[in-house]
Automatic annotation (TrEMBL), chains A, B:
Coiled coil region boundaries: none
Protein name (record): cAMP-binding protein
CDD domains: CAP_ED
High-level lineage: Bacteria, Pseudomonadati, Bacteroidota, Cytophagia, Cytophagales
Domain Cyclic nucleotide-binding: 33-93
PROSITE patterns, sorted: CNMP_BINDING_3 (PS50042)
Amino acid sequence: MNDRLDNFHKYLTQKAGVKEEDYNAFLPYFSVKNYQKGDIILSKGSICNHIFFVEKGLLRLFSIDQNGTEHIIQFAPENWLLSERESLYFGTPSDFHIDVLEESIVVMLMQDFIPKASSISPEFRNHNEFILQNHIRQLQQRVNLLISASAEARYLHFIKMYPDLTLRIPQWMIASYLGITPESLSRVRKGLAEKNFK
Amino acid sequence: MNDRLDNFHKYLTQKAGVKEEDYNAFLPYFSVKNYQKGDIILSKGSICNHIFFVEKGLLRLFSIDQNGTEHIIQFAPENWLLSERESLYFGTPSDFHIDVLEESIVVMLMQDFIPKASSISPEFRNHNEFILQNHIRQLQQRVNLLISASAEARYLHFIKMYPDLTLRIPQWMIASYLGITPESLSRVRKGLAEKNFK
């Protein structure tokens, strides 16, 4: 079953520098699941027990406010990791939902994957620290954009971060991620089109 | 000089669980500085080489946009850690500034403090992972508040997070942190006062 996992294997051996024999020792600590569009992987109030690596497809982490409006915290296309880290690490009920936006193949890393893989592979231990630091970097940049930048600057940052998502998801989801109204996003896109920016 | 460091000592031995003898082994990896109100600890474009622990006083991490407006990413009163982690970890020039809002005593943790302290003390190693996970938790909650919550909900969260800061900093700084105008903050405070909320 794991011979399908080209992306996950490449991610660990090439990006994280994990040795081939160590990769084999990781096998007991993950499994693979197929999901259909619309499947819910995590619901608010549940405990998140996994980190999800997207081998193929697209996941989304989002909250729902008291008016029933969805607010998107993160997208995870191929080669991205996604989790509700607060719930996973602190054992608290999740404030967020995770669902499936496209038919997906997801590598489910068990809760003890990180400590086990870190004890097996010093390269993985270093990479895990990189992942945490990088997550902080991205979230801090996002906070800064949300409190300081124009809707246009936020949209341009989004395109850079998720280059192929603009074609894969509806406009309202991009607006939700950016914290602006769909109407504002339309104006931004129209303005950029007039400047010959796709 | 280090006998002044009650807060830092308590933080490490009580909160992080570091053993007394291990604390002594940490001494070569930090120093202490006094700062005056208005001092600049880190400027945009510089490399951040330290993590700052606030023994006494108040620091602030902020960006300045192209119009010269300041946007506050984080406050750090007593017992908080502050750094520009992107610059510290990735070695990139900082996008942010750090300055001093009140006369402060700051413990300057050198860049190799974390790896050295982690190799000396397993308790510290665990605590450092907690710090990173907690930072992700706080930033993710902040992103969610910024894209989903009312100005009132954001202000209430701010008070909970920084209970004594409302008396120590000017209103415009709170508004800047919340990503709202000072006028909006006045309306929120007035609304809360009418509900008998201080």
